[in-house]
Amino acid sequence: MPKNRQDLDNSLKKQMIKDSARNIFLADGYEKTSITRISKQAGVTANTIYWYFSGKDELFAAVLEELISVFVSALSQRSETYSLEENLLWMLESFQFAKPLIITVHERSAISDAVATVHNNFHNSVESLLGKVLNESGFEAARIKPVIRIASFVVEGLLMHEVSIKEKQEIVKQLLAILSPLRDK
Known about the structure:
Elements: H1 10-28, H2 35-42, H3 46-52, H4 56-78, H5 84-95, H6 99-109, H7 113-136, H8 141-160, H9 165-179
């Protein structure tokens, strides 16, 4: 039977819980993941999880924050080296492993403040980076936000549907061709 793992530092124990939750969420999705199952994998009692997180949504949000932090950091580094097209395709490929979680985030955001906050923060971070790239690419400031929204909708649409890599590449290429005339000359 799992113990409270009093031998471990609280921050290490909390990280073990998040790591276990992340692995199960990614493998089986949100709905099939229980606090009991996470506690067993982490080697702690379910009550220990509730000591750190008020519920499954808060734990899910904490896992998402970590995943998003890694993603945004990588995107930030890439944005200086790669083209917008390359970065959009990289984003699509990067999110593929978490597709079930992306669907869940959209569903849970409507009923969970914790998940909605993480979702909004993610969009704000990515939109800020894309805004910087678009600004540096010569887009007029007033056009940047609508262009970002269009790109976000296309990326989310491509993530929600089964589309081949070749089709994704063509769609991203066409999107950028359509948006290209919106640049300042």
